[in-house]
Design brief:
Structural class: alpha+beta
Order of helices and strands: HEEEEEEEEHHHHHEE
Distance between the termini: 26 Å
Strand content: 15-25%
Largest sheet: 4 strands, antiparallel
Strand order of the largest sheet: 1-6-7-5
Number of helices: 6
Mean pLDDT: 93
Number of strands: 10
Low-confidence stretches: none
Helix content: 10-25%
Radius of gyration: 20 Å
Length: 269
C-alpha cells in the first residue's frame, strides 16, 4: 500500500534511473496529456512530498516543469532496463511511459497526473502538512495542526494529509496500537500528542529504503504488523482477537483491550 515511505522509495528509484538523462520518447495515456511529447527534455530530479511524487524536468527551452502524480491506493511507478519485459502491472493500467538511453519508467494507475511549471508546485502540494520524511520535517507544526481539531477522532486526523503528510491506514493503525490509543479517541483527549507524532515519524523513517513495511521489527511474512490486516487474530500483547471496523471512509484495526478508551462499536454484520 503506497504510504509516505513507499512514495519516498519510488522517488529514489526514479531518481537513480532517470536523473540527468535526456528523454528519448514519452507516451501519455491520459486524455489531458495525450498529445504531450517530452522527447528532448532532461530529468533533473525525482522527489516526494507526502504521498505525491514530483518528477522535475527541464525543457529544451530551459524552462523547468514538474510531472506530478499521486499514487493513492493503487498507483505505482516501475523502472526497467531498455528491452526488459514490463511486468509491473497489466498493460491497460499504464498511464505514462518515459524512455531514456539507460532506463524506461512506466507509471501504472497513476492519479492526478499533471504537468505544471515547477514554480507552481505549491498549488498542488502547498496544502500538505509537514512531511514526515522531508528535510523540513517539523513535529511541532504537525502537533499544532492536529490539535486545531480537538473533536476529530485521532484515527481520522492522522490520515488527513493537511495535518502531517505521509501517514496512511497501515501506520495509523500501528502507531495508535503502540501508543495504546483508541482510533476513536478525540484528538483533544490524546494524552501525549507529541509522542504519538514522534513515533509515526520514526516508523516511516525506519522503513525508508525498503519495500517491506514493518512496525514489529520483523520482516517475515505475517509478522510485520501488530494489528493492521490481522482481524480476528490474537493480539501480540494480550491475546485478544483484533477487531476491524469502519472509521470515516477507511477501515481500522485495533485491540479492544490494549486500546480500550472508547465506546466499542458493534461488530460488523
Amino acid at each position: 500500500m503506497p504510504e509516505g515511505d513507499t512514495v519516498w522509495n519510488t522517488a529514489r528509484v526514479l531518481h537513480r534511473a532517470l536523473a540527468g538523462a535526456r528523454i528519448t520518447g514519452s507516451d501519455f495515456r491520459v486524455p489531458q496529456l495525450a498529445t504531450t511529447d517530452l522527447t528532448g527534455w532532461t530529468v533533473r530530479e525525482s522527489a516526494s512530498r507526502g504521498k505525491h511524487l514530483l518528477l522535475r524536468l527541464s525543457a529544451p527551452s530551459e524552462e523547468h516543469w514538474t510531472l506530478h502524480s499521486h499514487l493513492r491506493m493503487d498507483g505505482a511507478w516501475r523502472a526497467y532496463a531498455p528491452g526488459e519485459r514490463w511486468s509491473g502491472r497489466p498493460a491497460h493500467l499504464i498511464r505514462v511511459v518515459l524512455r531514456s538511453p539507460g532506463a524506461v519508467a512506466v507509471g501504472y494507475h497513476l492519479h492526478e497526473l499533471t504537468l505544471v511549471p515547477t514554480a507552481t508546485e505549491e498549488h498542488l502540494v502547498g496544502h500538505l502538512g509537514p512531511d514526515l520524511l522531508g528535510s523540513d520535517w517539523d513535529p511541532a507544526e504537525a502537533v499544532r495542526r492536529l490539535a486545531d481539531h480537538p473533536e476529530q477522532t485521532i484515527g481520522e486526523a492522522l490520515l488527513d494529509q493537511r495535518n502531517l503528510a505521509g501517514v496512511g491506514n497501515l501506520y495509523k493503525c500501528e502507531v495508535l496500537f503502540l501508543r495504546g490509543v483508541s482510533p476513536w479517541t478525540p484528538v483533544g483527549r490524546v494524552p501525549d500528542l507529541p509522542g504519538l507524532v514522534a513515533l509515526a515519524q520514526r516508523l516511516l523513517a525506519a522503513n525508508r529504503g525498503r519495500w517491506t513495511q514493518s512496525s514489529t521489527g520483523s520482516l517475515h511474512r505475517g509478522q510485520t504488523s501488530y494489528v493492521y490486516g490481522r482481524r480476528a487474530q490474537p493480539c501480540r500483547r494480550c491475546g485478544t482477537a483484533i477487531r476491524k471496523e469502519e472509521l470515516g471512509e477507511r477501515v481500522t484495526y485495533w485491540c479492544p483491550v490494549c486500546q480500550p478508551d472508547h465506546p466499542v462499536p458493534p461488530p460488523s454484520g
